[in-house]
Amino acid sequence: MEGSAAEAAGMVLKKEEEEGEEDEEDLAGRFLRLEWEQSALLRALPPFGDPVSHVYHPLDYAWEPHCDFVRRYCRTPKRVLFLGMNPGPFGMAQTGVPFGEAWHVREWLRVVGGVKKPPSEHPERPVLGLTCRRAEVS
Known about the structure:
mainly alpha
C-alpha cells in the first residue's frame, strides 16, 4: 500500500514537471511533500486492535483530488491554516479534501481527480469518491 501511494505521489510530481507546470519546490509542492512525510509516519504506527476494524487513509487512495485541491488553493502564503479532516465517512474519506463533502468539492471548489478503493472498506461506508451523493452532517 505504501509503495503504491508513494508511486502515485511521484507520478503526480513527475507529470507536472514534464508538462512544465509548477516546480516541486513551490509552496504547494512543499506542502504536499510535508503531508506525504507525515502520512508515512502515521502508516508506520502499529495497527489498531479491536474494536477498530477499518482505517481509511485518504491520502493513499484519494491522492489525485487532494493534490488538485492543494495546487489550486495553496498557491500563496496564508495567515491562517486549518488542519484536519472531516471525521465523518462522507467528507475527506470520500474526496481527499479536508472538510470536503463530495458535492462541494466537485461543484464549488471544482476539484478533479481519481479516487481509488481503500484496501479494506467497511461494507456500510464504501468510498465512492467525487461521485458520492451523501452529505456529511458532522
